[in-house]
Amino acid sequence: MTTIAFPLVPRSNPRRVLADLLPGTLARDIALVVGVAALTALAAQLRIPIPGLPVPITGQTFAVLLGAAAIGPVRGAFAQVLYLALGMVGLPVFTGGASGVEVVFGASGGYIVGYIVASIVVGALAKRGLDRGVLGTVLAFAAGTATIYAIGVPWLAVTTGMAPGAALVAGAGVFLVGDAIKAALAGVLLPGAWKLTER
């Protein structure tokens, strides 16, 4: 019987992510979750406001998706749940040092919730080996980005009263070039990290 291998996934696929190469179990996993949550909070402060638009450009999506690919779907999702919880209880971890429930229920709240789902998507793709090559990594990042927008854009439209088309442009279209750059950068970093582990 002939099998057809998916070309973007290596033949030898142990269903591991980069973090699984580190020794340890529960303590390691807790540290990874806290670390990615902290990285997301730091990246949220890298903020470029866009005049006339309610959602700024930030480094969050890069931190979220890179973190998910590195630590996997379950730990990645927990990291974003922790990030969301910390912001809701008042720690200044959201964009621009913001915090509180009102941020989650505001214009950018859908993107924050989308980080949890996107972490599951990208982490699962990484476990299947897509982060071992440039093209696979870019496609995984594209899938994660699309997931964030699928939740964030409708949320933006509802909370601001924007028409769907306007919300799509304001909440996704203006960020596409930056997203492409982030995906390309990840396409260098993740496969490069795997190659280093093989030495």
Protein described:
By secondary structure, the protein is mostly helical. It has a single domain (18-197), classed as Arp2/3 complex 21 kDa subunit ARPC3 (Orthogonal Bundle). 64% of the residues lie in helices and 2% in strands. The chain has eight helices and two strands. The protein has a two-stranded antiparallel sheet with strand order 1-2. It is globular. This is Biotin transporter.
Number of domains: 1
What's the CATH class, please? Answer: Mainly Alpha
Cα distance spanning the termini: 35 Å
Q: How does CATH name the architecture?
A: Orthogonal Bundle
Largest sheet: 2 strands, antiparallel
Q: How would you classify the helix and strand content by structural class?
A: mainly alpha
- Rg result: 17 Å
What shape does the CA trace take? globular
Q: Do you know the CATH topology?
A: Arp2/3 complex 21 kDa subunit ARPC3
**Oligomeric category:** single chain
User: Runs with pLDDT <50, length 5+?
Assistant: 1-7
- The number of helical segments is 8
Order of helices and strands: HEEHHHHHHH
The side-by-side strand order for the widest beta sheet comes to 1-2
Number of strands: 2
Helicity range: 55-70%
Average pLDDT metric: 90
Q: Beta-strand level of the residues, as a percent range? A: under 5%
Subcellular location: Cell membrane
Membrane topology: Multi-pass membrane protein
Transmembrane segments: 30-50, 103-126, 133-157, 163-190
Organism: Promicromonospora umidemergens
Task: List the topology elements.
Blueprint: H1 26-44, E1 47-48, E2 57-58, H2 60-71, H3 73-88, H4 101-104, H5 109-127, H6 134-160, H7 164-171, H8 176-197
Antiparallel strand pairs: 1-2
Helix pairs in contact: 1-2, 1-3, 2-3, 2-5, 2-8, 3-5, 5-6, 6-7, 6-8
